[in-house]
Amino acid sequence: MAHLAHYREAHPLLFVVTHWINLIAMIVLIVTGFSIHFPFWPLFMGVARGMHVFFGFVLFLNCMFRVIAAFFVKTSPTGGTRKQVKDYKTWLPQKDNRHQALEWVKYYLFLRKTHPLGAKLGVPQKLSYLLIPLLIVLMFWTGLCLWAPTMNLGAMWATTTFLGGLMSVRIIHYFLMYVFIVFMFIHVYLANVEGFAPTALMFIHKEHGGLVYDPDAHNIVGEDNIKH
Amino acid sequence: MTRSVIDPITRIEGHLRVEMEVTNGKVSDAWVSGGCFRGMEMVVEGRTPEDAAQIVQRICGVCPVSHSHASTIAAEKSYGITISNNARIIRNLIEGAQFLHSNILWFYNLAALDYVNPLNALNANVADVYDLAATYYNTNEGEAITSTNTDFVALKEKLTKFAANGQLSIFSGNWFDADEGTAYKLTPELDLVCTAHYLEALKMQARSSEVAALLGGKMPHVMTIIPGGTAFVPTEQKLDDLKAMVDEIYNWVSTTMIQDTLALAPAYQDGLNWGKGCGRYIAWGVFEGQGWPYGDDYIEQMKNRYMPMAVLDENLKVSDVEESLITEFMGHSWYKGSDTFTSPYFTTEPEFTEYNVEDRYSWVKCPAYDGKPMEAGSLARILAAYQRKVPFIVKHVDEFLVKLGAALGLPGAAPLSAAQSTLGRTAIRQVETLYVATLMKEWVVELMEAVKSGDSEYFRKSQTITGEGTGFWEAPRGALYHSEKVKDGKIEGYQIIIPSTWNLAPMNADGVHGPLEQALIGIPVEDVEKPINALRTVHSFDPCTACAVHVTEPATGKSFETVTSPWGVK
Amino acid sequence: MENQATISEFDSILSSRGVTRRSFMKLCGAVAAAAGLSQLATPRVAQALEKSVIGATKGDLYPVIWIEGASCTGCTESFAQIESPDPATIVLDMISLNYSETLSAAAGHSMEEAKAQTIAAGDYILVYEGGVLEGFDYNTLRVAGETGNVALEEAAEHANAVVAIGSCAVNGGWMAAHPNPAGALGVQQYLQKVGITTPVINIPGCPVNPEWLMAVLVDVVLLKDPSLIKLNSFNMPEGMFGQSLHDNCERRGHFENGEFVYEFGSEEEAKGYCLYPLGCRGPQTKSNCGVVMWNNRRSWCVQAGSPCIGCCEANPNNPGQNWVEVNTPFYKRHRDLRVGGLVFQPGTVALAVTGLVAAALVVHGFGMKKTGRMDGGADFETIRKWDKAHPEQSIGTYADAEKGGPILDDDALYEANAGHARPVRGKIAADESADSADAEEN
Question: How many CB atoms lie under 10 A from the CB of residue C36?
């Protein structure tokens, strides 16, 4: 029993929903994207293109909503506590994370044997989540540069020109998909490698007992044995 | 001694300068300079053979099909692919369409303005023009012998209106007054007929390109000749369009070109006395033959082409090509060093010094076969086919020589050697045009039969992506050679020797002039400002300098250092 | 001739009345000669010629200088394939093509004279075909004893507009592809470099489609004002290069249906299915090829069975973004990327990186398993390493509830916080001391 307790306050219902939407949209986008890149399943092409465009908008809008919501919705800044702060704070580096980033890296490289404290998701993970909205925006933007109805709009065309033409945009769009895939691999791996409790919490909002952490004192202050 | 310079030479493809020394009214020395370097081989380096087949066409907008074809053959030889029979016929048709296009364009729209003065046609009596058209090379009484599709009255009106406006357009700076007005010798009536045919030819060359476009997507720069066969798969509608267009071109060619040539010849008979060139010829052969496939025997394949391969010496004795006898010398060209390189993959590095006829004076390299300069082109092909006894060529060349003898008032047929001159080279090409037009009709039927019989194979995928191969082929301008070395699907070495490289070659290591330079020496020049006979001789070779200038193997010299980024050269 | 049918119909009418066509036409000719129509013209030409080699400097025809830079003549060739109007009508009734290396009757010295006189007379447009070459101090292109850029500058400076035709003239075309051996670039960029401000109209394509050039020429000749042509930010006519080829493709229906050609010469090819899987560049190439088609609207690349290879891709300000560099290998979805001497397909690299990450995660998973972290992870640190080393700057309170001060002993702190003794696993205890040793070293 060495992990922190998983409380719903870490992932309020709203964010469980947005996470679900992200998951579905990304998977649909990746599958349809591959299909558009090379029509391995030809009859799917027409549907794939429609879905790709639709879910592109869904992912982008969901991302925008999620980012805005972060300024209004409170969440726990770390596991093991029911205390909450505005969600955006849990994204951005906080005092609690100071000097811990490298410790997390060391932990995952087996250079240290104990779990470092601080941050809901581990500090490097948290930083990588900061990049995801940027990635989604970039993906959306390059997608619009490639989509016929929008490709000629001033800003899109300027972007295309800046990037070196539609072929470049296409390659960047394709490369970024792999960034998503790599991110998902790592994300899924890290979320589940020490147990499925975080996933259960994120997907079905199921709590799980563990150590109690005090984000103000910055240390473990007890243990919560939720029966399950 | 005076210098006479023609720069730019017009009505050719590319940039060409001819400098001549004139002594006692005759050219005593000559230097031909190709004026543009673009570096094709370096660009295809590192790309795929399929890409190369598309890119190398851009060497020349007049004969793109031949380059695409030669490159494709090189790739197929590298990969060991033998194309299907359907692909062979379709590719022959595309190549043939380009030959027709090129030959028609060259004769009427490029070379003819050395002989025909459309402004003089303003003085024609149109009624006499109709008589002339009916009798100007008289065989069958009472029938128009040359094409009279054009309304000569309307044409004269058109020219009159043009002249009344006073702006000269493409006739600006013309040489019609060269040699104190004696250079252009046709009657106004014949000038009008030929002007009409100039305009008809513009349409017919376009129609020929249209055939190439039907099969190749567009022309110039066709799309469907690809290593492994062709991307074109015929449909019923395409086939009947094809037949109609090919018939139309044949009808026009067969009623116009040889007739006009014979009508022009008497006025310019002195053109038989000069312009011979080096007198040795090469033809690598073009249009794959009916006995397809020939297995691994490349020589057999080349000998069986409709226009067969042959190397001809001074006595027109035939031998087969040996690749290792092809060399290139750089000593008078703007490339580093003065070595002679043996085929394939010579390493050269461009280096401009200065224009100096005593030293280096051209971007064209100097190729040699067995150490000697060689002439390539339609004349070379016809001589090769004649010596190899291709029935159509033997029959029609003999017939042509009889008619030429009659037209010139010679006692009998003109000798074959008459073809080895400025006028002869210009004239004999029409026989080839007729041959190709005839073949096109045959191929259309052959293709239709093949399709109807259920043969639907157009493309064969390669089983390997590494190898080496050479495409021996012909452009309308002559022997064309593409050679490539491919490793893991990427080109490691690429070498092109183009007909005009042979014809426009500068001096070789022994100081022997290239074929065109040799042809120019001895030509009478009355007017050093407008040396019309020299121009006629240059045009008889149908030069193509953009083709002629290129470089092999990537040079790693300083001049080529480029900043690269993932997005390419900035 | 397309009027042959009419002629032969007419012939049959004539012959039914016992008149041959030739004799009828001859009669027409005799009538015209009697009316003295053409006799007027000859003296005017002679008169004009005395003054200049280009004839009258002003007239009904719009003067045009057509310079071939580093070109393959393909664009001139393409122009010669135009059907309506046909090229003869264009050069006799519409423009005065005073300088064209391929079509002019003149050659050499008098050719250059014609150009000089046209420039002096002014009010002309310059059509420029082929690339501008900077290699070897511009000596990679030599014309009339000079380097090629000289002719361009002279003619461009006084022109009403410069029409750069073909991808080579727009940005160097294939010549600018790696390693750009001759130093090719486009007309617009070159003129900018030397400070010539004449407006440039770019019409890409390899070669240019004559319909595009004609549309621009008709605008200029009829409207007399090149600035009326609506151009995009690349100075390309918007109507021709505003939409992707894919948008107007005749095979688009098959694309939407998911009917594709996966191999050349296949059954699908015979059915005219979409060439997208063979690397067709239609979706990313802006041109209306599928609408205007080529060679008397006979066909075009896709109709003939070949995927588009994107020959209209040309950024006039960047020779590196030329169509060959951007689109090779033509039959693959993506271009090759080039980093230094390395050439690779983006997809291969992406896949390799992804594979590597996946493999690393698997290996990592074994590590996690072996260190016993899979079941809930390792124990949490009780005191952060950094805090322990820097107690005075520590952000942790680690407070001892009774004494108030920080507890910097792991076991005591644990017990104080959790309410029971810290579970001791031999392994962890040893690790803790190893961690402490690290901290001391720091």
Answer: 8
Is the pLDDT score of B445 beyond 90? yes
**Type of residue found at C197:** T
Chain B CB within 8 Å of residue C151 CB: no
What is the rounded average pLDDT of the residues C188-207?
96
Q: CA distances (Å), B337 to each of B340, B353, B365, C15, C325, in order?
A: 9, 12, 12, 72, 31
Residue pair B126/C33 in contact (Cβ under 8 Å)? The answer is yes
pLDDT digits 0-9 by tens, C14-56? 566 555 656 666 665 555 555 444 444 454 555 555 567 888 8
C-alpha atoms less than 13 angstroms from C-alpha of C166 in its C-beta half-sphere = 33
- Name the minimum distance, in Å, from the CA of A86 to any CA of chain C: 21
Reading the block at residue B552, the tokens are 């092999």
- Can you read off the two tokens belonging to residue B65? 């099909």
Task: Name the catalytic one among B101, B221, B477, B550.
Answer: B477
Do C155 and C194 contact (CB within 8 A), yes or no?
Answer: no
Q: Is the dihedral of CA C230, C236, C237, C241 positive or negative?
A: negative
List of chain C residues whose C-beta atoms are within 8 Å of the C-beta of residue B134: 22
Contact C115, C65 (CB under 8 A): yes
Contact list, A164 vs chain B (CB under 8 Å):
567-568
- Find which of B564, B567, B569 to mutate to test the A interface (most A CBs within 10 Å of its CB): B567
- pLDDT tens figures, A36-67: 999 999 999 999 999 999 999 999 999 999 99
Q: What is the pLDDT of residues B138-160, one digit of tens each?
A: 444 444 467 777 889 999 989 98
Whole-number Å distance between alpha carbons of B229 and C328: 20
Q: What is the DSSP string of B474-537?
A: EETTEEEEEEEEEETTEEEEEEEE-HHHHHT----TTSPPPHHHHHHTT-B-S-TTS-HHHHHH
With an 8 Å Cβ cutoff, are A38 and C277 in contact?
yes
CB-CB contact of B436 with B99 (8 Å): yes
Q: What is the pTM of this model?
A: 0.90
Position C437 confidence tier, pLDDT thresholds 50, 70, 90: very low
C314 - beta bridge partners? C322
Across chain A, what does the average pLDDT equal?
90
**C331 within 8 A of B489, measured Cβ to Cβ:** no
Cα A224 to Cα A215: distance, rounded to the nearest angstrom: 16
Angle between helices B391-408 and B236-264 (to 10 degrees): 30
What's the rounded Cα separation, in Å, for the pair C4 and C356? 69
Is B68 labeled as catalytic in the residue annotation? no
Cβ atoms < 10 Å from Cβ of B236:
9
Torsion B407-B410-B416-B417 (CA) sign: negative
| Single-letter code of the amino acid located at B198 | Y
Beta strands in B222-313 (DSSP E): 225-226, 229-230, 281-283, 310-312
For residue C393, give every residue at least 6 positions away whose Cβ sits within 8 Å of its Cβ, in sequence order, or none: none
ipTM value for the complex? 0.91
